[in-house]
Amino acid sequence: MALIGGSLVLVIIGWLGIDAVVSGTGRTPWLALATLILVVPLVVAFTLRPAVFANHERLRIRNPFRVIVVPWGEVEVLRSGYSNEVLAKSGKKYQLWAIPVSLRGRKKAARQTARQSAQQSSGRGAGRGFGLFGGGMRPDGLGGRTPVPEGPGRAETDKIIDELREMLEAQGKAQTPQGEVTVRWAYEIAGPAVVGAVLLAILAALG
């Protein structure tokens, strides 16, 4: 949804901004250009850019303004509360912007789990009925009852964290070369945004 929303916002901003640059008069084209230079990188940073990559050696986190590479041997724990975070052994924590916590998704999964438990309980306590084939209530759907999926329901983002934890457990104990945590600032995002902010400030000061 972030990718779709970000793409739509970029299309709208581009359409309005380019139209103002081409058709505007006076200071309007300059204001529109400065706004585009400021806003476009920020929209990309918070919608299209965030991602998490994992392989058998390390975890690579691409957040809006930073890229963090954490070898599995340096990961202390993956925490999930109101946000999903990686806690390094150095004590520093890094948020996973690409895997946001969905309280709505958790509530939906909890309701689904409760429904499944209720259906399973009612199925175990159901009396003998008469289905299409003359037998009782059958769990395969032939006797009129829908099969119940097994296992507790989980929100999608929680499932992703579960997979990362499994990788941490598997790779954290492996005898592979371990490095240090590296953090690189996304100057390709911050640079244009700063330039746009400076241009807007100059235009505002000039009146």
Distance between the termini: 39 Å
Low-confidence stretches: 126-151
Radius of gyration: 26 Å
Instruction: Tell me the β content.
Output: 15-25%
Question: In summary, what is this structure?
Answer:
It contains 5 helices and 7 strands; from the N terminus they run H-H-E-E-E-E-E-E-H-H-E-H.
Topology:
Blueprint: H1 2-23, H2 28-48, E1 51-54, E2 58-62, E3 66-71, E4 75-80, E5 84-88, E6 93-95, H3 103-124, H4 156-171, E7 182-185, H5 187-206
Antiparallel strand pairs: 1-2, 2-3, 3-7, 4-5, 5-6
Helix pairs in contact: 1-2, 2-5
Protein described:
The protein has 207 residues and is α+β, with helices and mostly antiparallel strands. The chain folds into 2 domains: 1-49 and 186-207, no CATH class; 50-119 and 145-185, no CATH class. It is 49% helix and 16% strand. It has helices at 2-23, 28-48, 103-124, 156-171, 187-206, and strands at residues 51-54, 58-62, 66-71, 75-80, 84-88, 93-95, 182-185. The chain has a 4-stranded antiparallel beta sheet with strand order 1-2-3-7, with no helix packed on it. A hairpin with a 3-residue loop joins strand 1 and strand 2. Helix 1 (2-23) packs antiparallel against helix 2 (28-48) and helix 2 (28-48) runs antiparallel to helix 5 (187-206).
